[in-house]
Amino acid sequence: MDYTKTHLTQAFINLDNLTHNMILLQKLVGNRPLWPAIKANAYGHDAEIIGRHLTRLGYAPLCVAHIDEAVELIEKGLDTRFIVLSPTLPENSRYFVQYGLEPVVCTLDQVSTLAEVASKPVTVHLKVDTGMGRVGIQPDQVVRFLEECARFPQITVRSMMSHFPRADESDKSFSRHQIERFSQVVEKTKAQIPIYHFANSAAIFDLPQAHFDAARPGISIYGLKPSLTMTNPEVNDLRPVLSWKTRITFLKEAPEGIGLSYGHAYHTERPSLIASIPLGYGDGMSRLLSNRLEMLVQGVRCRQVGRICMDQCLLDVTDLRGKVVIGDEVVIIGKQGDEEVTADELAETLGTINYEIVTNIAKRVPRITVGGTSLMNASWDRAT
Ligand SMILES: Cc1ncc(COP(=O)(O)O)c(C=O)c1O
Question: pTM (2 decimals)?
Fold first, then answer.
C-alpha cells in the first residue's frame, strides 16, 4: 500500500528551496564549511531526505543530537560523517567507535571512557561554555583539559565549539561578550586545535565575527528565520522548505448555535458549512491551537473551529459554499493562491517558536519530496 496516498495529511519538502538556502548561507560565510544540523528528524523535515540532499550537495559532517539519529541514517545507507552534539552516558561510548561517530565532549570522563573502548582512532569536538549555561568546559579549564586529552593517543581533538543562547535577539551585546571569551581560548589553544566553530543560524546572519572556521546552521537551512528580530535583511531571502497540507474528507451544513467537536468548545455563530479534515494532534498540530487557527482552502483563509482532536479537526468553509468539495486541498503551512500561512504565524499564535512547530510534525505524516533533481547541475562551488 502506498501510505503517502492514504495518509492525506502530508508534508512537502522542497529540495530546490533547501539548495537555495544553502547557497545563501554559503555566501554569508564565504569559504568556510557549513556543518548543517539535521537533528530531531531534520527539524521535522525528514532527516533521511534532508541528509541525502545535503550529502549530494557535498556537505559533511552533518550534526545530529543523538547516537541513534546517526545510526538510523547510516543503516539507511547514508554514507557521511556525523557530529553528535548532545552528551550521552558512558555505557554508550562504544557506539561512537563502532559507527565512527564524532562526539562533542565536555568532561574528562567522557574522553577516558571513549579511550577505553577505542579500538580505532576516535575524533572528538570540545564544547566550551561561553555563556549558554547548558553543557561545556569552562573557558579557563580548556588548556588543562587539552593536556589531559593528550594522554589518550586514540583520541583526536578536531575542533572546539561553543553555542549562542541569544544571537537571535536584536541586542547582540551578550553574544559579543561570548565571542570575546571564545577568542581568548582560541588564542591559547591555536597550536593544538585545527578548527573553531561557534555560529548557529542567527550568528551566521547577524554576527560575522563569530564565523571562525566553520558554522553549524540549523533552522535557516529549512528556510525559517531564527527569530523575527534579526538585523541582517538577507534573512528575508530564505525560502521555507516545508509546506504542510491535507484534504477535506467530509462536509456538512450546521445550523446556527450548534456545538461542534469535543467539549463543544465552539458553537456555530451562523448557519455554517463545516469541513472535516484528517489533521489532529496525532499529526503534530497542537490542541492548544483549537479555535485559533486559519487554514487555506481555494486561496481563502478559513477558521479552524472546535477542539482539535487526535486525528481530525473542523474548518468553517461557509464563505466557500457552492464552491468547496470533498477532496479539496487545505494548506496548513504554505502558500495557496495569494495567501500564505507561515510556521511563524502558527508559532506566534501558540506562543512558541517556528522550530517547535515544524519539529512537532508527527512521524506518521508522510514527507513528500519536491524538486531536487536540478541541483546536480547547479553550477556553484561548495567551499570546503
Ligand atoms: C550545538 C548546536 N549548534 C547549532 C545548532 C543550530 O542552531 P539553529 O537551528 O539556531 O541554527 C544547534 C541547535 O539547537 C545546536 O544545539
Answer: 0.95
